[in-house]
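Collaborator request, handled under Task 6.
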Amino acid sequence: MNDILFKHFHKPGLRALAGYEAADVGGYQVARQMLTSKVAPDEIIEKVKQSGLRGRGGAGFPAGMKWGFVPKVSADPRYLVVNADESEPGTFKDRELMEKCPHMLFEGIHLAAYAIGAHLAFIYIRGEFVQQAQILEEALAEAYARGYFGRNIFGSGYDLELVVHRGAGAYICGEETALLDSLEGYRGQPRLKPPFPAVKGLYGGPTVVNNVETICCVPFIVGQGPAAFRKFGTEKSPGTKIFSVSGPVKRPGNYELPLGTSLKTLIYDVCGGMRDGHELRAVIPGGSSVPVLDASKVDIALDFESVQAAGSMLGSAGVIVMSQRMCMVRATLNLIRFYRHESCGKCTPCREGTYWMEKILDRIEHGMGQPGDLDLLLDLCGTLLGRSFCALGDAAAMPVESSVRTFREEYEAHIREKRCVVRDAALAGSR
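Structure tokens returned to the collaborator:
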């Protein structure tokens, strides 16, 4: 089921401008039509609002509503920034979109920038994405040569410049205000909100920040209409979503499916089930920053509301699958190491809390856990949740808290027996 974003991904040459403009793909026709016929920008915003498109970067905020927050009159220039700083463990969908079809992203940028009145746009791409940045730059050069960026694009009288900006590889720069600080040349750290970027963002001007997948949905919505987008998904979570599946399944990878598809269908039908010798034990459904669910939740629908009702979050839809062979203590330690390393250090709860959580989990994993460590971990989680400067503190605490609460017996066995009973049992079974 690849009816929107992945529909043409099997076609050779799609990365090049000629491939994107091929008759059966029809790329740039929507942007060309909207700009040359001088459709009112508010009409585009209204279509996006009616489609119900929610941000695909993790927060799930309605994209059209965000665009509508940009002031109609502003003395400062307006900007569009595409967040391509995809750094969440378990999430790798934007990378494929940029690799396979950079011009679809560019066409979405045309429409989004025109809708908010921006004449300068940026793609802020993760520093480690060297190949993807080169692909974008080559495609952008091709688009500029054809007159699709710069002055009077498509002969419409509308000017738009686009810059591909490579970050330095910091997870915090996926947070929109830290991204803006980094783009301005400062150390990437989150800003106090309000004011929100839509009112006062890049260089103090009104700015919309959307991630790659969100922007890529826009040509379809504007071209086919909101109703066509709403044919997929649920009432409150319309459209399709790219699910990045990793872990011991037979066919891991990116899959575009309607929101509301069940987790069971994704794992056992789309991904071919668990690899031989593995049984489903747990799933983190929305990238590493959301609460872990045990296998009993496998029937849940993968949409924003259903996943939240089950005790987790859809987030970026990076579905991390875990089997009965995996030690939850070690897995959680790996996650908190990431967040401790990536904490920018701006606020005490996050800086100190992630440090101490890693320290406690490390000693439990290595057989030096102490009575009371689990309650101390949960207390630390409570200190971070809702109390850090940005969402990174929550992102660090939620998987730890849920892992300890859901698999407490395994943690207690680690402390009591000073070893991993799960890993030892798996090793014994493989002999």
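The cover message to the collaborator said: "The chain has a mean pLDDT of 94. The longest helix spans residues 348-365. Please let us know whether this matches your experimental observations."
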